[in-house]
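Re: that backbone. Tokens:
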């Protein structure tokens, strides 16, 4: 790398959303973890599901509160829609879905600011930066690819089936349900996706949701989305694939595992990829958390887990793959799951 100039000049930071037109703890009929109770915004953070790192920062909710009601976008539902979408999303169409465009942040930072933040990265070890998941277990059924139509093209993200009251909730990124002011259409979830194959079926969304902050201004700090999928062959989603647990307002700085289906080079969207390590706080333009990870476009919306068991493939979801900085390609960032994410989940599971 070249040296950092002594007199830096401001320059724009490019945030690459990890969606791709090519981009999810477990209840096998019963939940492994109870859904977190609804908490008012002024309530103190709940106790973490694992013992927090004693050196980690205290948990903080992202930025100013703002509106708290999630936004629900109804989609076509019912058996005819399921059948039509299954015909639309052929294996070839799934394989040919392409990465979404990168977005540019309007916020700025200087090289001097970047230099100041780098020591915060190198002090953390990253056991895995992006390898194919070969451990098996629940995550191979609950994690999957999300496919949708955006600006006339077919695109994809990643998602995760979550324990919920209606047994039908998929958690993903906000930009995987809405981007550039428009809600995506032809939205489906394919758990356990394998190179065009849908071993557990193609699940059509009856409605998609996002946080009010993402819906209003696409604020990267609240890049969280959800979908409520319709039953398939008379069965609910988590009755078929199980549903991972989920947690909110947890301590920062813990060890996490991030999963997704990256489809941009050097990946091709055919395999479930994972990263693991101790997360850091974003030191630049957001209040998100970061993990050493080289996943690419298509991974957006894939789950981050606390207390993940490599033996069983189960964990507690606590973020999603969201974006990267153009000059930090080996780091991925995800939103903090605070009260707004919790409200989103509670709205989705009661839909």
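Recovered sequence:
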């Amino acid at each position: 790398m070249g040296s950092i100039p002594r007199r830096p000049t401001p320059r724009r930071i490019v945030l690459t959303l990890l969606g791709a037109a090519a981009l999810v703890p477990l209840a096998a009929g019963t939940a492994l973890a109870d859904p977190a109770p609804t908490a008012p915004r002024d309530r103190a953070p709940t106790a973490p599901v694992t013992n927090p790192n004693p050196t980690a920062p205290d948990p903080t909710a992202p930025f100013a509160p703002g509106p708290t009601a999630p936004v629900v976008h109804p989609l076509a539902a019912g058996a005819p829609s399921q059948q039509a979408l299954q015909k639309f999303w052929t294996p070839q169409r799934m394989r040919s879905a392409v990465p979404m465009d990168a977005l540019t942040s309007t916020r700025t930072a200087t090289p001097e600011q970047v230099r100041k933040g780098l020591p915060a990265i190198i002090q953390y070890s990253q056991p895995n930066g992006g390898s194919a998941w070969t451990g098996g277990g629940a995550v191979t059924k609950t994690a999957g690819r999300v496919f949708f139509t955006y600006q006339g093209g077919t695109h994809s993200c990643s998602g995760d089936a979550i324990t919920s009251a209606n047994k039908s909730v998929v958690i993903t990124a906000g930009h995987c349900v809405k981007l550039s002011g428009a809600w995506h259409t032809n939205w489906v979830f394919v758990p356990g996706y394998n190179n065009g194959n849908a071993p557990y079926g193609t699940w059509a969304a009856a409605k998609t949701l996002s946080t009010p902050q993402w819906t209003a201004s696409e604020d990267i700090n609240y890049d969280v989305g959800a979908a409520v999928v319709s039953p398939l062959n008379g069965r609910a989603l988590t009755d078929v694939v199980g549903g991972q647990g989920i947690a909110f307002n947890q301590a920062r700085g813990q060890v996490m595992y991030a999963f997704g289906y990256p489809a941009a080079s050097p990946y091709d969207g055919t395999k479930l990829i994972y990263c693991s390590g101790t997360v850091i706080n974003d030191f630049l333009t957001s209040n998100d958390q970061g993990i050493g990870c080289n996943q690419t476009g298509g991974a957006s919306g894939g789950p981050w887990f606390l207390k993940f068991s490599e033996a069983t493939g189960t964990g507690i979801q606590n973020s999603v793959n969201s974006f990267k900085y153009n000059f930090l390609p080996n780091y991925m960032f995800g939103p903090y799951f605070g009260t707004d994410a919790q409200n989103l989940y509670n709205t989705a599971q009661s839909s």
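Residues 339-349 form the longest helix (11 residues). The chain has eight helices and 21 strands.
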